[in-house]
Recover the amino acids of this structure.
């Protein structure tokens, strides 16, 4: 696949499975941003504290870590088309559980299930798309298409939540819309004729090597990858990026309403600019050729995210909407291409390890989300959201530092 063509030509050349993965990414983006958007309504209607919300977000993220393994190397043992159908059906069942959950405990259980199987689909998609090209820069841009879809869903999520809550103030109403989107994904995954030939490449050297071809390095496995300094720096950067990104998803609406005196709907609209920034960055990464290296991109964008989050943290009460929108936009832009570029950097060193590296990155992003959920929830309960928000600034600065170290290695 040539990525020097126009965006429309590039999209027109995508195989059917890529479109299924892109739509899956949109649904995952919608679901991922919903919990933060409905938190004020959920707290009011179910009578839960910030601490409980933090734990809900944490176990929700833990489901994402399990899903990363289900969509990683484990997935190579089964035909991808069967996994697409099975995981999507599991998502539908879990969403129905979220919608009808009678209490907080059942809600948490079904939230974990949705996150598990949505992340499994997302990771499976990264692994399949990473094998469409052997060129590191092209591979990164292909993977970025998934993140464009994810960001599009994240951008739509707070707007969809605001519209659904305006029609019905129950926190469940946005999840009803998500259920319809998940049903569409199931219909796509059931098209057997289009998915029949979809397979992973073999990862054993004796299966993959051709006469006269360069030797293929044997798979390292998860433990072997974790011993590589490059992979470790990539994973620490992913942890910090995930903490910054998901912390903003989870807590911005609450922070804006509790600490800055904003109306709930105004805060949700400002959150939409976070997703707009992410869409901008990922479209740029996927479609626009740049003279900057992957390391140079995340160095500059990491510093931008740290400054923008500091701008939100230091904002006074009754800050103008425009300021919050701008800070959210630059925060989104700053963390927008963290995942695909970090995965691209790791794959440049270990190209045969796409499913495992994708799974490891998803795990550390999920771990970052759990830290943001639990630590910030505890701090918000004890010291207020203003103090808790400092965690996001520190995490963004850590991401910028790791990007600088990766640039020095390059």
């Amino acid at each position: 696949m040539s990525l020097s063509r126009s965006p429309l030509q590039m999209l027109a050349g995508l195989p059917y499975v890529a479109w299924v993965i892109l739509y899956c990414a949109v649904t995952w983006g919608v679901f991922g941003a919903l919990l933060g958007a409905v938190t004020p309504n959920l707290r009011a209607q179910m009578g839960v504290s910030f601490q409980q919300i933090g734990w809900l977000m944490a176990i929700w993220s833990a489901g994402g870590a399990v899903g990363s393994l289900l969509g990683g190397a484990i997935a190579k043992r089964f035909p991808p088309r069967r996994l697409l159908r099975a995981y999507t059906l599991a998502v539908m069942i879990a969403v129905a559980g979220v919608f009808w959950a009678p209490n907080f405990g059942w809600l948490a259980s079904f939230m974990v299930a949705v996150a598990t199987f949505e992340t499994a689909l997302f990771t499976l998609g990264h692994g399949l798309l990473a094998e469409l090209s052997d060129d590191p820069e092209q591979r990164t841009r292909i993977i970025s298409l998934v993140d464009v879809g994810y960001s599009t869903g994240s951008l739509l999520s707070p707007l969809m939540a605001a519209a659904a809550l305006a029609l019905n103030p129950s926190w469940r109403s946005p999840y009803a819309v998500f259920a319809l989107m998940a049903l569409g994904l199931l219909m796509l995954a059931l098209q057997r004729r289009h998915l029949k030939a979809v397979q992973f490449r073999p990862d054993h050297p004796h299966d993959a090597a051709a006469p006269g071809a360069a030797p293929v390095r044997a798979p390292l496995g998860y433990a072997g990858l974790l011993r590589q300094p490059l992979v470790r720096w990539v994973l620490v950067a992913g942890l910090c990026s995930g903490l910054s990104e998901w912390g903003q998803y989870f807590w911005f609406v609450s922070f804006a309403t509790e600490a800055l005196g904003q109306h709930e709907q105004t805060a949700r609209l400002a959150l939409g600019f976070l997703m707009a920034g992410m869409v901008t960055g990922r479209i740029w990464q996927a479609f626009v050729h740049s003279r900057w290296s992957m390391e140079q991109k995340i160095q500059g964008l990491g510093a931008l995210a740290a400054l923008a989050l500091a701008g939100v943290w230091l904002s006074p009460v009754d800050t103008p909407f425009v300021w919050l929108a701008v800070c959210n936009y630059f925060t989104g832009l700053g963390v927008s291409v963290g995942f695909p570029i970090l995965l691209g950097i790791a794959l440049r060193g270990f190209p045969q390890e796409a499913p495992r590296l994708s799974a490891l990155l998803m795990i550390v992003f999920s771990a970052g989300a759990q830290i943001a959920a639990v630590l910030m929830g505890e701090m918000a309960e004890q010291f207020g959201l203003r103090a808790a928000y400092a965690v996001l600034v520190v995490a963004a600065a850590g991401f910028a530092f790791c990007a600088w170290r990766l640039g020095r290695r390059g």
